[in-house]
Specification:
The structure is a single chain. By secondary structure, the protein is of the alpha+beta class. 34% of the residues lie in helices and 24% in strands. It folds into 3 domains: 47 residues, 2-Layer Sandwich (Uridine Diphospho-n-acetylenolpyruvylglucosamine Reductase, domain 2); 116 residues, Uridine Diphospho-n-acetylenolpyruvylglucosamine Reductase, domain 3 (2-Layer Sandwich); 107 residues, CO dehydrogenase flavoprotein, C-terminal domain (Enolase-like, domain 1, 2-Layer Sandwich), CATH 3.30.390.50. The strands form 4 sheets. It has a 5-stranded antiparallel beta sheet. Strands 11-12-13-14 form a 4-stranded antiparallel beta sheet. The longest helix has 22 residues. It is globular and about 60 Å long. Flavin-adenine dinucleotide binds next to strand 2, helix 2, helix 6, helix 7 and strand 10.
Length: 295
């Protein structure tokens, strides 16, 4: 019978609940590919029920307080613990004041139940092209700390995603923190998402960031989700925007460039053509919003 998301979990596994990052990395070093980290479990448990993953060891991150800090300033950058929930992130004043796009992505993240359980680290490590926080963090030039028992490295998010479900994370590594450079003055950002129903993942989503100098776009980033094998940065669209005087016609033009730059597919959620049309519109609208916020 085809496995569904609604039956109980049959396969047996050992459940570990470390209380420190070091203990978790020790367990990962010991069990390697036989283990799977569980944060909120909103992706992992579905995958286990569907029998796409059958780890012999599940390592829960729930009891590790060091992974749970909401955005805080550390040596000039904002740092977020990997195990912060989408709900906590949405409620953090820092998100709404400094990172409007991220706050919007968290606000529209499925249902309240999912928002309470799902974490930002899980959203990135699951590596879905539809991960809502990924385009936001890409426009903020975020990086992630990956820790193993013996090593630690910081990887720019632009280098983190490899393919659907695949990242540069090694089997013995834990994503511990997300770092976002402090926004410069006159920065505005916005996130927009189109989905079949509110509780679903996106058909297309887009995040943009604009830094303004008077009427001119001094710097910008544009990133999209559900339009390519990994969360996608639209570099041609950015190039058409930076250095120009901002107008609604320019926003429209840049939206069209972004729509031609993406590589969407047909799937159960939308056709390629629909995704391209919607991408042009939501990039345009997100640019208009971000521009207003950059004052
Ligand atoms: C009904 C429903 C609606 C959803 N709606 C949305 C939506 O609107 N937008 C959206 O983006 N997603 C959505 N999702 C997907 C999911 O909720 C998110 O991807 C969520 O952020 C995953 O976080 P988690 O903490 O639950 O991850 P988990 O399921 O615990 O983990 C996901 C993967 O990441 C790995 N992992 C987790 N944390 C770490 C870490 N710190 N270090 C290393 N590896 C780690 C796990 O081993 C696993 O492979 C939805 C899921 C469901 C079931």
């Amino acid at each position: 019978m085809f496995p569904t998301n609604t039956h109980i979990l049959f396969p047996e596994f050992d459940y570990h609940a470390p209380t420190t990052i070091y203990e978790a990395t020790e367990l990962l070093a010991q069990y390697g590919d036989d283990a799977r980290v569980m944060a909120g479990g909103t992706d992992l448990l579905v995958q286990m029920k569907m029998e796409r993953r059958q780890p012999a060891h599940v390592i829960s991150l729930q009891r590790i307080n060091a992974l749970k800090h909401i955005p805080r300033l550390e040596t000039g950058d904002w740092s977020i613990g990997a195990n912060v929930s989408i709900r906590q992130l949405f409620q953090s004043p820092v998100s709404s004041l400094q990172f409007s796009a991220l706050a919007e992505a968290c606000n529209w993240f499925s249902t309240v139940q999912i928002m309470y359980m799902a974490t930002i680290g899980g959203n990135l490590c699951n590596a879905s092209p539809a991960a809502d926080t990924a385009p936001c963090l890409l426009v903020y030039d975020a990086s992630v700390t990956l820790k193993s028992k013996t090593n630690e490295r910081v990887v720019p998010l632009t280098d983190f995603f490899l393919a659907p479900g695949k990242t540069v994370l090694r089997a013995d590594e834990l994503l511990t923190h997300i770092h976002i450079p402090r926004p410069v003055p006159n920065t505005g950002s916005a996130f927009l998402k189109i989905s079949r129903v509110a509780a679903d993942i996106s058909q297309v989503c887009a995040a943009v960031k604009i830094v303004r100098d008077g009427n001119v776009v001094q710097d910008a980033r544009i990133a999209l989700g559900s339009v390519a094998p990994t969360p996608f940065r639209a570099v041609n669209a950015k190039a058409a925007l930076v250095g120009e005087t901002f107008t609604s016609e320019l926003a429209e033009h840049v939206g069209n460039i972004a729509a031609h730059e993406i590589k969407p597919i047909d799937d159960v959620r939308a056709t390629r053509e629909y995704r391209q049309r919607v991408a042009a519109v939501i990039v345009r609208d997100a640019l208009l919003k971000a521009w207003e916020r950059s004052l």
